[in-house]
Please model this.
Amino acid sequence: MGGGAYVQLRDLVRLRYQARGFSYLPAQPVNSVLAGRKRSRLRGRGLDFDELRHYRPGDDIRTMDWRVTRRTRTPFVRVYTEERDRPVWVVVDQRLAMFFGSRYQMKSVAAAQAAALTAWRVIGVGDRIGALLFNDQQSSLHPPSRSPGALLGWLEQLATMNNALAADAVAPARPDALGEALHTVSRYLTHDSLVIVISDFDGWSDDCLTAIKAMRQSNDVITGLVSDPLEHSLASADKLVVSDGAYQLQVEAEKADAEARFSAGYSAQLTSLGGTFKRHGIPLIPLTTESDVAGQLLRQLGGATARTAPGR
Model:
């Protein structure tokens, strides 16, 4: 669906029908990029296994774990806890640095689509979804809600913010806006929330890490790193023309030294960022501009193809 330089509200609404077959819950298919992460403090609804403990007088006999009891010759029971409501926040980057794409669509469009798919999925399973939308000039915060009307409200603002992007923008780009957005959403978190940050992480700094670590104290964080193939390698472009909106410059992509310097620099940034996230237990979901975002989320978080994906 979609693609191109801009996204419309109707496109984000239609994604509701593609928001299935993937999940951000701790239990993941073996092929999911979230599989194998440490057990989250976040749970869905119903009853969730919490721990094994010694039998105490008055415990319900139906909770006995007979296998462990036979093995240890000591009575054990399985303790379950009621799974709690899980507020989810999406932090969506719509800065000028995201207004870039060499293939199917802009990074800003991919980020908007990923946010909409996530939001419709969260609403679909009965959880609350909130958002922090930001660009180089402003941010807009929307508290978590189960209301489709509230969701439509901030999706409309997201589309408006997306359509305001332009290569000849007068206002300067602000890499530090990322850190400001992260600090803003961290101040509104309580506990047991899931925060999904969708960005190219341009302007990543120690200040950003400080905000992420503050979130991680009582919440879970997942990152969606949006990139374009051209950022990974200039070799994919026969003729490359770059512009600041006023002037254009043709880059000789075949020059090996320029290609090597560019690729090495970007690769080093990704390696550093990925290493930082890994050290702090923050899963990273790579997203690219070269294909449909719904399909990417399905492959990475659902472990299934669009044709065979389960309904939940």
